[in-house]
């Protein structure tokens, strides 16, 4: 399980630099779901022994991302018992500055998944005030984690907790949307959900099941039963690539508390579309709802660059 962000994977302090994004894994994958009495922490949060599983040391894995961004993963490396004892003896001593060891990576992290989990890694202390750093991944595929620059949106969109930067998120079938900084992400009941305490967004894909129907008629069908709104609370936009955007918004009363609602659609002549439903507390957050609606994009497979 990943800790909430943006915070430092070592000390937990908030991070202000968007160029370094830290994620911290609380436990190795093999320890998830085990009773607390099976998990033994050796004085510091970075040293762990798990009954029936093994010994672990928390390390930093640095990954280079596009947009001049660095992802720093505070993850676990499985080691033998002798290495754990040595780490425990040296952790608060001057010898820690020269501490180095090998082990196997103990967290499954997307988009690298099973290639990284179980890969042999080499680590050393680069800064005595920080956790040991993974310096080498001894696996023909997983080694690319350290050597390549990865697409920031592709990697960060896999992490559900709040991010200090906005990332474009894949919705499937060529569709994507911008997930703003500070929003959590999840998927349930056919909707991609993005949430913060004062705002939410839910996105779903639409497919017209009536062959040859125009976008305007498809939109009419989607709006069946929708509440009537004043012209000032509606937007209709023709897109240069042949798409159509339509949105409306209202402020109903929810248990006596105003809650603004925004409904938006983006449709293409091919019969594919996406709908978004946003809620927000402050009236001036309407601009945010319109922005995330306008960020809905579809790149048909035949137009993608291979």
Concise summary:
The protein has 306 residues and is mainly beta.
Description of the molecule:
This protein is mainly β and 306 residues long. It folds into 2 domains: 20-150, no CATH class; 166-303, Protein Transport Mog1p, Chain A (3-Layer(aba) Sandwich), CATH 3.40.1000.10. It is 13% helix and 39% strand. The protein has 6 helices and 21 strands. It has helices spanning 81-90, 113-116, 144-147, 152-156, 215-222, 286-294; strands spanning 20-24, 39-41, 47-50, 54-65, 69-79, 100-105, 120-124, 133-138, 149-150, 167-172, 175-179, 184-188, 191-196, 199-207, 234-238, 244-250, 253-254, 257-258, 260-267, 272-280, 297-298. Strands 1, 2, 3, 4, 5, 6, 7, 8 and 9 form a 9-stranded mixed sheet that branches. Strands 12-13-14-20-19-16-15 form a 7-stranded antiparallel sheet, with helices on both faces. A 3-stranded antiparallel sheet has the order 10-11-21. The relative contact order is 0.10. Residues 1-12 and 301-306 have low confidence and may be disordered.
């Amino acid at each position: 399980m990943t800790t909430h962000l943006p915070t430092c994977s070592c000390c937990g302090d908030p991070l202000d630099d968007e160029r370094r994004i830290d994620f911290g894994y609380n436990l190795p994958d093999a320890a998830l779901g085990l009773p607390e009495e099976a998990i033994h922490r050796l004085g510091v949060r970075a040293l762990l022994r798990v009954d029936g599983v093994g010994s672990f040391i928390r390390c930093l894995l640095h990954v280079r991302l596009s947009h001049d961004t660095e992802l720093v993963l505070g993850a676990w490396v499985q080691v033998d018992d002798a290495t754990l004892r040595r780490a425990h003896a040296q952790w608060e001593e001057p010898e820690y500055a020269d501490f180095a060891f090998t082990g196997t990576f103990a967290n499954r992290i997307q988009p690298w998944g099973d290639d990284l989990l179980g890969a042999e890694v080499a680590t050393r202390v680069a800064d005595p005030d920080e956790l040991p750093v993974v310096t080498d991944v001894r696996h023909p595929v997983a080694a690319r984690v350290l050597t390549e620059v990865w697409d920031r949106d592709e990697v960060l969109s896999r992490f559900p907790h709040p991010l200090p930067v906005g990332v474009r998120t894949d919705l499937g079938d060529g569709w994507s949307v911008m997930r703003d900084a500070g929003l959590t992400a999840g998927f349930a009941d056919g909707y991609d959900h993005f949430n913060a305490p004062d705002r939410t967004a839910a996105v779903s894909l639409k497919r017209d099941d009536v062959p040859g129907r125009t976008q305007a008629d498809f939109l009419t069908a989607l709006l069946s039963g929708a509440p009537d709104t004043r012209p000032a609370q509606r937007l209709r936009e023709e897109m240069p690539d042949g798409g159509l955007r339509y949105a409306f918004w209202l402020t109903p009363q929810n248990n006596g508390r105003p809650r603004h609602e925004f409904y938006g659609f983006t449709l293409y002549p091919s019969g594919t579309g996406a709908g978004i439903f946003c809620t927000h507390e402050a009236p001036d957050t309407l601009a945010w709802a319109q922005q995330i609606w306008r960020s809905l994009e579809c790149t048909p497979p035949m137009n993608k660059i291979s």
